[in-house]
Amino acid sequence: MSDFTDLVARAISPTMSREEREAVYQVVKQAMRRLQERENLRPDDPRALLQEHLVEETIRDVETLVTRYLARQTILEAERANEAAMAAGAAVGEEVLRPPRSGA
């Protein structure tokens, strides 16, 4: 992970709403534009376009990481709920059919 991606990833949290994360991304984009203005880069300058592309790519990378994390949390919660249901069924003497484990 690049230093910039790491910095953006640290600025957000998976517990933040999409709108909250988008607000952070807007701050990052504004900071980039201010730096470009300070360096007298026109919006159509290839260097400015590259910087904009890299910021957008970083945001996509961070959102991918957040999505993977949230999906994994959902899977873990479902597995825990399934295990609890199987344990409860076994406690009352019901026959419990276990779903096949992937990769088995």
Question: Can you describe what's shown?
Answer:
- The chain is mainly alpha-helical.
- It has one domain (3-91).
- The chain has helices spanning 3-11, 18-38, 46-91.
- The chain is rod-shaped and about 75 Å long.
- The protein starts with a helix and ends in a 13-residue tail after the last helix.
- 4% of the residues are buried.
Helix content: over 70%
Q: Quick one: overall form?
A: rod-shaped
Tally of contiguous helical segments:
3
Number of domains: 1
Oligomer: single chain
Straight-line N-to-C gap: 33 Å
Write the layout of secondary structure elements.
Elements: H1 3-11, H2 18-38, H3 46-91
Helix pairs in contact: 1-3, 2-3
Q: Quick summary of this structure?
A:
This protein is an all-alpha fold and 104 residues long. Helices cover 73% and strands 0% of the residues.
Give a quick set of tags describing it:
104 residues; single chain; rod-shaped; mainly alpha
